[in-house]
Design goal:
By secondary structure, the chain is α/β, with parallel strands linked by helices. It contains 16 helices and 24 strands.
Length: about 500
């Protein structure tokens, strides 16, 4: 007969943390949120770390290059979604790696045939006031000039005024040649008192822009996640179908870490994928998943995974449990896998980080996941709400929302992540197409979330994630306790502040 677990399958919402003694040195300002990303041996440091225990989900509606840049600047990591052409995904990785090095691909471009009206529309869309004028209006066309807000006056210039009439022409620009180092580019910027330095090749084709403001960027983002060359770090998802073609291109694009994107990681297909990477690119780190128990964890560890992703069916747009009856409460899954991780570490001296993927509804759930043994969490809905995510912002009624859909939805058509052993289209959906409330900029919202995490850890008497795991006291709560935990028995009023 089937094996039946005696324990109830529980979610994060069924637990609360009990406070521990908060010592004088355990203030939010002293909380260390760094955490290992990949496996390491006892007494050694992991090859890759996160500065905050948060990564973004491998989803079309979440993790593109724009969000990857924003999250890395805050200390986290994005895994660029895999359900796109190989060259497109590799290019996203390249754009992230180039961004921090100071060489930015222009996303605001016009031709000489455009008008001031077009310039203003682009400025409104991108938020960037520096616009490149190229012969074909693309980011890599022949550079003909630059437009900044100093080149026009809205009070006097007509909206149909041609770009060629008010741009700063190429002959008046100071430019750098392709191949120049960032240090050399910054020297030119400072010597000529520039805000922006275009980088062109011998044929005058535009390649990058280098901005003075990037010098100050590091000061404003001290926790940004960088590689050994001081470039932003970025991950990428892969599937179990075209990995032999996809992985070499991602490695060539200098991706920092890979992760197999699959709804069920306990498969021979995933083992084959991980082993291929380890045999052909031994220096490349790769995570596997998703699994929900000790057996799945051990299978991926023995396959060579550098970290393991935990969770099936817990995402806000995931309906795997509803459709297939497969899954487990996220809290129960993390607790069991963390125990298996600890046992493996005790036995072998090798520590395998685990990532809790799904089930995060409230910010405090992140702390619960860490207290239960996760080294970091992966979130989708959380990031889909922000300006930097790749989806459209639309107005619904009196409110703005952003589109958000699952990789298992018909809209995504990402059949590759469902290891069915056959090249086929989706027979049924395991995800939904939805909206999430628009929330603004990633950095502003993430700062609030991190403030809550540090405050909660302080109340638990934990100065770092390891101490949180070792010291935490958790209690199962009743449905009535959950109701009691929110505002109740009062009439809420609009804030005057």
């Amino acid at each position: 007969m089937a094996f039946i677990y005696p324990e109830v399958s529980r979610t994060f919402s069924e637990f609360l943390l009990l406070p521990n003694l908060t010592t004088r040195d355990c203030t939010p300002a002293n909380i260390d949120l760094t955490t290992p990303l990949v496996k390491y041996s006892k007494g050694e440091n992991p090859a890759l770390k996160l500065n905050i225990p948060i990564v973004s989900a491998i989803m079309q509606a979440v993790s593109n290059d724009t969000l990857a840049i924003a999250l890395a600047r805050c200390g986290g990591l994005s895994f660029i979604y895999t359900s796109q052409p190989i060259d497109s995904q590799a290019e996203m990785v390249r754009r992230v790696k180039k961004h921090k090095s100071g060489f930015v691909v222009s996303d605001s471009n016009v031709s000489i045939h455009h008008t001031l009206r077009d310039v203003l529309a682009i400025k409104e869309k991108t938020g960037h006031s520096t616009i490149a004028v190229t012969d074909d209006g693309t980011a890599h066309g022949k550079l003909l000039g630059i437009i900044t807000s100093r080149d026009y006056r809205l009070s006097r210039d007509p909206l149909d005024k041609k770009v060629s009439e008010f741009m700063t022409p190429f002959k008046d620009l100071v430019v750098g040649k392709l191949g120049i180092t960032l240090s050399e580019a910054n020297d030119i910027i400072w010597a000529h008192k520039l805000n922006c330095l275009p980088i062109v090749d011998d044929e005058q084709n535009l390649h990058y822009l280098v901005f003075r403001k990037d010098y100050d960027d590091h000061k404003a983002n001290p926790e940004q996640l960088m590689d050994s060359k001081k470039r932003l770090m970025v991950g990428a998802g892969i599937n179990t179908w075209d990995y032999k073609e996809r992985v070499p291109e991602l490695v060539n694009a200098e991706v920092d870490v890979l992760c197999v994107d699959s709804s069920d990681g306990f498969t021979e297909f995933q083992r084959d994928t991980i082993r291929y990477v380890k045999e052909n690119f031994p220096e490349v780190k790769i995570g596997g998943g998703n699994i929900v128990d000790k057996e799945g964890f051990m299978y991926l560890v023995e396959s060579g995974a550098d970290f393991v992703k935990v969770g099936i069916g817990g995402g806000s747009i995931c309906i795997t449990r509803e459709q297939k009856g497969i899954g487990r409460g996220q809290a129960s899954a993390v607790i069991e896998v963390a125990k298996a991780r600890d046992e493996y570490f005790e036995k072998t001296g090798v520590y395998i980080p685990i990532c809790s993927d799904g089930g995060i509804v409230h910010d405090y759930h992140i702390v619960l996941a860490l207290a239960m043994g996760a080294d970091f969490v992966m979130m989708g809905r959380y990031f889909a709400r922000f300006d930097e995510s790749p989806t459209r912002k639309v107005k619904r009624g009196n409110n703005y929302v952003k589109e958000y859909w699952g990789e298992g939805s018909n809209r995504a058509r990402n059949w590759q992540r469902y290891d069915l052993g056959e090249n086929t289209n989706l027979k049924f959906e395991e995800g939904v197409d939805s909206y999430v409330p628009y929330a603004g900029k990633l950095k502003d919202n993430l700062e609030v979330t991190l403030t809550k995490i540090r405050a909660t850890m302080s109340s638990c008497g934990a100065r770092n994630i390891k101490e949180l795991y070792e010291k935490s006291r958790l209690v199962v709560v009743s449905s009535t306790s959950i109701i009691e935990g929110g505002a109740h028995d009062v009439i809420l009023k609009e804030s005057d502040y």
